[in-house]
Amino acid sequence: MSTSAGEPPEPQGASPAGSTGPAGPTGPAGLAKEAQVDPRLLVREQGLKGYLTQFKQRIRGGELGSLPVIVGLIVIWLVFQSLNSQFLSAQNLSNLSVDIVATGLISVGIVFVLLLGEIDLAAGSVSGVSAAVVAVLNVNHGWNPVLAIIVAIAVGALLGLIHGLFFAKVGVPAFVVTLAGLLAWNGLQLRILGANGTINLDNNGLVSKLTNTYFSQVIAAYGLALIGTVAFFAISYFGNQRRKAAGVPSRTMGDLLVRTAGLAIVAFAVAYVLNQYKGLPLALLIFLIVVVATDFVQRRTTYGRKVFAVGGNIEAARRAGINVALIRISVFVISGAFAAAGGLFAASRISSASQATGQSNTLLLAIAAAVIGGTSLFGGRGSTYSALLGMLVIQSITSGMALQGVSNSIQFMVTGAVLLAAVVIDSLSRRTQKATGRT
């Protein structure tokens, strides 16, 4: 049987186009239907074996995800616990969970900017301005603390809007715009604080209570663990039901139960540790809610997909009809708002707003946390969970070395080495993905 030039010969024994055999339709329509199914989703029907296979393929392809930072965090905890048995004590872990919140919130906003492959160098100064604003309004002018907090966060968002407008509309590079903002807002912070340079907050006021409040009832921590576990299972289960209704491969019930059990073990273990000291910290509760909510926005909403699209390929996003300028402006507004929130928690931690708030290494640690946690400096890949994981790594190093009496100079060098390692892993991961055609 002859074939036309350029067309492959029909395999022997092949069924005619459109015929149906024991395995179902084999014609063009049937093949098209099969091609619509993402092969990566098929592993969900193979249970544990399928996920092990997919895990190996992702590692070979350079898709490491949060694996390096989780492994690194475990190693850090084991090393410091072997050096000092107080490291994993309930008191130290509880203090650590509160210490990560201020810079962690700033890092959450930084993640949105990094997803575009840009940088926000003014986040630290913005946090300092917001702390100064809330202190002046609440202490010096007697404003209601809730209203003062709202205004302070609005100021942070406004400063972020200024950065975004110059970047997206005028075309000034984000590095230059935010570097100018770092200097200008630092001066604004000093101006707002006045000659004294420090304003003490009321120890019993709302701002101070942000980091000094603990839910000592045992049910609080365990209740949060239970709610989180149940919510995770419910969302996963109903998501599976929708997939089944749409004819898309979904996770098995066994897979869901294993995932839920793993989350429950971690959640209840954390709740147990916190209850051994003062209970569930309000600051940690707020931070966890922020991380979960922003991750939902990034992964489950149209806006979040647009952010990833612009960060992945700006020209393709523009041709797809995405308002690139609006997305660029919005991420800087978000970064400014979260920087302001971080400044409030930083002021709450020491019950004062001063010239040092948001300065020193605050910005560097916020950026480092996002990168160490797994957000790519090259844009298009990351999650707000990076802020949580990265801050855990950084604060664990700081806490462990403090217990050992190691100087700040050594702490900075070690943190810098960890940051460099994270960037190297990210670069090698991207190179591997390009080599395997996964980008």
What does this structure look like?
- The protein is mainly alpha-helical.
- The chain has 2 domains: 66-214 and 302-425, ABC transporter involved in vitamin B12 uptake, BtuC (Orthogonal Bundle); 217-277.
- The chain is 70% helix and 3% strand.
- The protein is built from 18 helices and 6 strands.
- The strands form 3 sheets. The chain has a two-stranded antiparallel sheet with strand order 1-2.
- α5 packs parallel to α12 and α6 crosses α15 (324-350).
- The longest helix is centred in the middle third of the chain and has 28 residues, at 218-245.
- The protein is globular.
- Keywords: Cell inner membrane, Cell membrane, Membrane, Sugar transport, Transmembrane, Transmembrane helix, Transport.
